[in-house]
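To: structure subgroup
Subject: Chain for Friday's discussion

All,

I'm putting the inputs and outputs inline so they're searchable in the archive.
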Amino acid sequence: MEFSVVKFVLIGIVMAFANMCNTLYFRNVAKKNAHAAAFWSAMLILVNAISIIHYVEDHAYILAALLGTYVGTFLTLKWEQKKKKNQAQA
């Protein structure tokens, strides 16, 4: 099987989005916001299913999944920190 840089990057992006869904899911569970938590839970399953289909066939893409999950969580928390800071200043 041939390695594809484009596929590697796309898996990373999808996994970043998956971790954003994961982070938002847990945030909404903590806030006891049932509808939002259920939505992000469903999105998480959908995005993970799509990404797993692609990187299971070639284990080299697992690195893309790992990098994407790190970036997704990091950026989501930074975004929420910035949002909270802006709300405090308003």
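Points worth raising on Friday:
The longest helix spans residues 62-89.
The chain has one domain: 5-89.

D.
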